[in-house]
Write a structure and sequence with these properties.
alpha/beta; TIM Barrel; 2 domains; 8-stranded parallel β-barrel; globular
Length: about 425
């Protein structure tokens, strides 16, 4: 049985009815299942168990400290893309030797912190970045452990806004230029070349793009070794998709078999950066119906969550399953509904013409598969406070990020002297 499912007519996270969470913590709110996260992590780790693999959880999917620590206690490292994420990983107890710093626009302060912390490696994405990192490391009497991120020009067959491995994307060094850049890197006194990195996109639901990308990277590694470069580590990124609607993404076992087939014979240490796969289906956004508004042509279900809380539908036209927290009776009729929020934007729409049972003001709905790229992409647009986050373990739950008070939000602003009353 899934850790997030109906039990006795009530949608529950593990042993906790979500209605009880909503009674304790005002909606809207995010709720995550520890068991669901652990189940996803352990399955992927077991699938990759026959390979020299390190799993570095991608914080960009969900950077709550409690979530990061949950994975750290399971043995995960961290993939971070900013100073803030690096500090979060360290604060959550991730060992520096299991942290990878990625990102196309690293600043000097981020790279300096990575050097001081002694992280596993920095995934460099351009020659100017390589030169900047070399100078920083040299000035500190250090050598920065580096993997060069390569852009293999592979279409991942996913949403255009989350592709990262095509020639026109901003990420990585072109495959044909990689050898020259790595030869240059090996000559810099502040750099210690560790290997090659690749990440082609997010929410991939086919193994074929992985196969093409990994095969190209394997060929590059063989050429680099023939040129005398010691390549001992491969960072294969993340990207394996989850089911939101009717997708049938590859299983971790099938993915692991592909990895073994394409790069397993290279004798390299392997790094993986799963994010969405580990947290996506572990979380829901709980929201309460405010009003049901009927027009001549539509039924609008107006809820208290908005696009500022979950921007994926507005940003990516993303589909999330929406279900009542109280299980509908067998045979309950369904009718089209527009599920919309209170934000003053037409784009503040979670679902269009969605088949839903009758609901009324006060009813609770759960927007599913919201554990990844939900809370981390939220904002305070319309001066709406960030929603709280709740973590469940068995029969217990705890608020792991409270809702900010409006007074505290106002206190963050400062009036300049000429606007202060005398």
């Amino acid at each position: 049985m899934s850790p997030v499912c109906y039990r006795g007519g009530e949608l529950c996270a593990e042993e906790v009815p979500l209605a009880r969470v909503a009674e304790s913590v005002e909606t809207p709110l995010y709720c995550y299942s520890s068991a669901a996260m652990a189940e996803s992590y352990r399955r992927l780790a077991a699938a990759l168990g026959g390979l020299p693999a390190t799993l570095c959880y991608a914080l960009k999917a969900n950077s709550n400290l409690a979530v990061i620590r949950t994975f750290a206690r399971l043995g995960a490292g961290a993939d971070v893309v900013s100073e803030g994420e690096l500090r979060r990983a360290l604060a959550a107890g991730v060992a520096p030797a299991k942290i990878v710093l990625s990102g196309v626009g690293k600043g000097a302060r981020e790279m300096a912190l990575a050097l001081e912390a002694g992280i596993l490696q920095v995934n460099v994405e351009s020659e100017p970045e390589l030169e900047a990192l070399a100078a920083l490391a040299r000035g500190r009497g250090r050598r920065a452990p580096v993997a060069l991120r390569v852009n293999p020009d592979v279409d991942p067959q996913t949403h255009a806004k989350i592709t990262t491995g095509r020639r026109e994307n901003k990420f990585g060094v072109a495959l044909e230029a990689a050898e020259a850049v790595l030869v240059r890197a090996a000559s810099l006194p502040g750099i210690e070349v560790q290997g090659v990195a690749v990440h082609i996109g997010s929410q991939l639901v086919s193994l074929d793009p992985f196969r093409r990308a990994f095969a190209r990277i394997a060929g590059l590694v063989r050429r680099l070794r023939a040129a005398g470069l010691a390549i001992r580590r491969l960072d294969l990124g993340g990207g394996l998709g989850i089911r939101y609607r009717d997708e049938q993404p590859p299983t971790p076992e099938a993915y692991a078999a592909l990895v073994a087939e394409t790069v397993g014979g290279l004798g390299c240490e392997l790094i993986f950066e799963p994010g969405r796969l580990l947290v996506g289906n572990a979380g829901v956004l709980l929201t309460r119906v405010l009003y049901v508004k009927r027009t001549a042509s539509h039924r609008f279900v107006i809820v208290d969550a908005g696009m500022n809380d979950l921007i994926r539908p507005a940003l990516y036209d993303a589909w999330h399953e929406i279900v009542p927290v109280r299980e509908p009776a067998p045979g309950a009729g369904l009718a089209p509904a527009e599920v919309v929020g209170p934000v003053c934007e037409t784009g503040d729409t979670f679902a269009r013409a969605r088949a839903l049972p009758e609901v009324a003001a006060g009813d609770l709905l759960a927007i599913r598969s919201a554990g990844a790229y939900g809370a981390v992409m939220a904002s305070a647009y319309n001066s709406r406070p960030l929603v709280p986050e709740v973590l469940v373990r068995g029969a217990d739950f705890a608020v792991v990020r409270p809702r900010p008070a409006l007074a505290a939000m106002l206190a963050e602003d400062r009036l300049p002297p000429w606007l202060v009353e005398s």
